[in-house]
Design goal:
It catalyses: S-ubiquitinyl-[E2 ubiquitin-conjugating enzyme]-L-cysteine + [acceptor protein]-L-lysine = [E2 ubiquitin-conjugating enzyme]-L-cysteine + N(6)-ubiquitinyl-[acceptor protein]-L-lysine. It comes from Aspergillus oryzae (strain ATCC 42149 / RIB 40). GO terms for molecular function: ubiquitin protein ligase activity. This is HECT-type E3 ubiquitin transferase. The protein has 5 domains: about 1-125 and about 145-180 and about 190-225, no CATH class; about 260-305 and about 345-440, no CATH class; about 440-615 and about 700-730, Hect, E3 ligase catalytic domains (Hect, E3 ligase catalytic domain fold, Alpha-Beta Complex), CATH 3.90.1750; about 620-690, 2-Layer Sandwich (Hect, E3 ligase catalytic domain), CATH 3.30.2160; about 735-840, Hect, E3 ligase catalytic fold. The chain is about 40% helix and about 5% strand. It is α/β, with parallel strands linked by helices. The protein is globular, with a radius of gyration of 34 Å. The chain is built from 29 helices and 14 strands. The strands form 6 sheets. The chain has a 4-stranded mixed β-sheet with strand order 11-12-14-13, covered by helices on one side. A two-stranded antiparallel sheet has the order 1-2. It has a two-stranded antiparallel sheet with strand order 3-4.
């Protein structure tokens, strides 16, 4: 491709037989052939019509979109390659050096672009010698009124438009533009270039850039340079609608997505040095385009092959057992079940959308840059505009913006189960499970529950057929019978027997039976079993875990006397909780979940497009678990004096073994190697690595193995460490009683508005104004857990039922259904006394 700068004389342009001006279906509004024609404002508007039904589709074997182009000769040899924008396979004659993609209409040059000798250096358009007129500042007051008036001279900016088009014509000019030698300063000059007039004047530049994007240069060294300034152009971020400049944006994203890997590394490094405000705007920009493409896909039917024989083949509602009436109906017409199926909305189809695929790949680059721990620019004007409460948490984790900034809530209304199954089967080119950062915690939990339910159904079906073939009673569930006074021993022994006999049995649905009690497990007994068992296992007197007094977090006890099998069973217990959607009251530090997820075994199934998480413990992780020790080590690193003479440290870690201080060398000969200013960083790294990794290897390895024995599916790979923590522990945020009250339901109340019944109002008022610790106890009494689910308070629906008229009996709770039963107490004091007595003295389950 030949692309000369704006300063080159006209006679230097060497065009091929196919003119660049006809390499796309949009004519140039200022070409020589249209000088005498009337120009309307619509000539400057970009379009996104190439993904809709068009009246003309170019010949895939032709290098020119002209209808009169010569056809391919029969003996001419074809070659196949990839389009640089949409990455689709295209065939074209081998003797041609340029081809046009039939999918995205982009012209691809096969020969690298080389600028002319005149274009070397900083190319720029010619500057007029005439001085620019000065507009007084007071004229800016009438800008608002002038913008609303209809322009009397629509071509007043013709010279400016031609200047902008000339400036954006050549790639060399673009490559040498947008340098960082001088920072751009905001200016208040020329206030009359405003609103619609400014849009009309600057839009030809965008149109010229669109033409450049339709035929990008194939340069060896600077081919990706024009793209970053183009994607950061302020005109791209104007709020002109969801599809504003989509015709340009889709090609920019396509070019970025299909750059070589070394260019992607440069882009990630470049993105990671953005200020928080700039980075957030860029993430919102790409995310808005994804949303726009999803809305365009909404309602489109699934692409299928022609099915003209539907009326010739009978359709049955079931695979077997068809009655004569069903057979007659199937032969004479289409079945009612098929008609009912067609009435339902088809799932959203986006697997063949190259624009979504390109935007997702660019977003993955931004997501990688967001987690890169590098020095960043301070927030300037852009950074001050975007502020959120979640930013401090993102900065604490070394992120520019929080992970939630990448979520796309429109995907909650898509068929995520179908997306997950297509991703597992590798049957489509694109699925959002390849890019899990788009999915919020609700979407991922929905997929995880589907995966768990599917595996449970498979095991239940296998157990059913095995019971028929073997003529033995085989339970469809994993039934554990335990005694309350021997809860830990009975539970660990039962789980050990199940895992030892067959690891596949652990994938069945879990059912708990307390010996000597009448309760039937519909979910409540399982919650109670998990709650009591976790409290016993994680009790510091049990010796498996040790607690830090400052952080209140627990971690593996390196000097535990229990066998490694105990930690394997603890890992199985943690996996069972996730597998059965149960929240646990455990206080493992956040870095423990990062360590656990990074140790996941390699699977042969599909993998997300993002890089696999790796874990290397650092001083920040130690600060989560033991803040005073981390603070002391940081002070050692920041000390400006002589470390050896002041601290007199050796490469030795001081460990506490049941009240006895034990010195452990951190390296060979560490007890004789002093810590100096030169090696103090090495000392801190070895100290942290020993405390969090080496010392607990005997405990962590079986724990990890037990966890992934249960949770070894593909759905778990979609989660990030902080999401796994939220999934296991639930949310420890203060209870939002108002939200719980808003989504609550009421049963067996004769009043038309049960929420206005005095006893119901007394309960919610008491629940809302009591102490936080008491609120947790009431929530545990009703639901079996004192934690809010990971999806928030609105996902926890409490059912308040009426048990009858005034009575001296206590309220009851059905934790299986999150139900609270209340009597119509006459006074509020009676309600509070009875409710609090039930909360403090409740234990065990019965039948009703």
């Amino acid at each position: 491709m030949v692309a000369n700068p704006a300063t080159s004389p006209p006679h230097h342009f060497q065009r091929r037989g196919h003119s660049r001006s006809i390499s796309h279906p949009f004519p140039s509004p200022f070409s020589s052939r249209r000088r005498n024609k009337s120009i309307s404002k619509h000539d400057f508007l970009d379009s996104d019509d190439d993904d809709d039904e068009v009246t003309y589709l170019p010949d895939p074997l032709s290098s020119s979109p002209r209808k009169g182009a010569p056809r391919l000769s029969p003996g001419e040899e074809l070659t196949t390659g990839k389009c640089m924008t949409c990455n689709c396979s295209v065939r074209w004659p081998r003797n041609l050096k340029v081809f046009r993609c039939t999918e995205c209409l982009t012209v691809n040059d096969m020969e690298p672009h080389r600028g002319s000798p005149e274009s070397s250096g900083h190319a720029h358009p010619g500057k007029d010698d005439k001085p620019l007129p000065t507009i007084p500042r007071k004229a800016g007051r009438s800008c608002d009124q002038a913008a609303r008036d209809k322009p009397s001279r629509p071509y007043i900016f013709r010279a400016v438009e031609e200047y902008i088009i000339t400036s954006f014509k050549g790639c060399d000019c673009l490559n040498s533009s947008f340098t960082t030698v001088q920072h751009a300063l905001p200016s208040t000059m020329n206030p009359l270039i405003y609103s619609s007039s400014q849009h009309v004047a600057l839009h030809p530049g965008a149109t010229s850039a669109a033409r450049s994007d339709r035929r990008p240069s194939n340069t060896k060294d600077t081919g990706h340079k024009p793209v970053p300034p183009d994607i950061k152009s302020p005109s791209r971020h104007r709020s002109g609608g969801p599809g504003h400049h989509s015709g340009i944006v889709k090609r920019i994203l396509g070019l970025l997505a299909n750059l070589p890997n070394d260019c992607h590394h440069y882009l990630v490094s470049w993105f990671s040095r953005f200020s928080a405000g700039q980075f957030e705007k860029l993430v919102d920009f790409v995310g808005s385009f994804v949303t726009y493409r999803l809305t365009r896909q909404h309602g489109r039917k699934r692409s299928e092959s022609a099915q003209h024989d539907d009326d010739l083949i009978p359709s049955f509602s079931s695979a077997a057992g068809n009655t004569p009436a069903e057979l007659h109906a199937a032969i004479n017409g289409r079945s009612t079940s098929k008609q009912a199926t067609e009435k339902r909305d088809q799932p959203v189809v986006y697997s063949d959308d190259w624009q979504l695929r390109a935007a997702a790949r660019v977003m993955s680059l931004l997501f990688t840059a967001n987690n890169a721990n590098v020095a960043r620019k301070p927030d300037g004007i852009l950074g001050q505009e975007a502020g959120s409460a979640a930013k401090p948490q993102g900065y604490r984790r070394g992120q520019i913006v929080p992970v939630s900034a990448f979520y796309n809530t429109l995907l909650d209304y898509s068929d995520l189960v179908a997306d997950f199954e297509a991703w597992e089967s590798k049957s489509t080119k694109f699925s959002f499970c390849q890019y899990p950062f788009f999915l919020n915690i609700w979407a991922k939990i929905h997929i995880l529950e589907h995966d768990a339910r599917r595996q449970m159904e498979v095991k239940a079906r296998e157990a059913f057929f095995n019971s028929i073939l073997s003529r033995k009673a085989i339970s469809q569930y994993l039934l554990l019978r335990v005694r309350r006074d021997c809860l830990v021993d009975d539970s660990l022994r039962s789980v050990s027997e199940v895992v030892g006999s067959s690891q596949e049995e652990i994938k069945k649905g879990l059912r708990i039976e307390f010996v000597g009690e009448e309760g039937v497990d519909a979910g409540g007994l399982r919650k109670e079993w998990f709650l009591l068992l976790v409290r016993e296992i994680f009790d510091p007197h049990h010796g498996l875990f040790i607690y830090d007094e400052d952080s209140q977090f627990c971690y593996f006890n390196p000097y535990c006397f229990e066998s490694s099998e105990q930690f394997f069973l603890v890992g199985v217990l943690l996996g069972l909780a996730i597998y059965n959607s149960t929240i646990l009251d455990i206080n493992l530090p956040p870095f423990a979940f990062k360590k656990l997820l990074a140790a996941a075994p390699q699977t042969t199934g599909p993998q997300p497009a993002t890089t696999r998480s790796t874990y290397k413990c650092n001083l920040d992780d130690l600060a989560e678990y033991r803040p005073p020790l981390a603070k002391g080590l940081q002070a050692l690193l920041d000390f400006e004096g002589d470390v050896a003479e002041t601290f007199c440290y050796d490469f030795v870690a001081q460990m506490d073994r049941y009240g006895e201080v034990v010195a452990v060398p951190l390296c060979t000969g560490g007890d004789k190697r002093p810590v100096t200013n030169a090696n103090r960083r090495e000392f801190v790294d070895l100290y942290v690595h020993y405390l969090l990794d080496t010392a607990v290897t005997r405990q962590f390895e079986p724990f990890k193995r037990g966890f992934f024995t249960v949770c070894g599916g593909n759905a778990l790979s979609l989660f990030r460490p902080e999401e796994i923590e939220l999934l296991v522990r639930g949310s420890d945020e203060p209870l939002d009683v108002a939200s719980l009250r808003a989504v609550a339901t009421y049963d067996n109340w004769s009043d038309p508005r049960p929420e206005m019944v005095p006893v119901v109002q007394w309960f919610w008022d008491f629940f809302e104004h009591t102490q936080p610790q008491a609120q947790r106890k009431i929530l545990s009494f009703i639901t079996g857990s004192d934690r809010i689910p990971a999806m928030g308070a609105t996902s926890l629906i409490i059912r308040v039922a009426c048990l009858g008229d005034d009575s001296s009996r206590f309220p009851t709770a059905r934790t299986c259904f999150n139900m609270l039963g209340l009597y119509r107490y006459t006074t509020r004091e009676q309600l509070e006394q009875r409710l609090w007595g039930a909360v403090l003295n409740s234990e065990g389950f019965g039948l009703k």
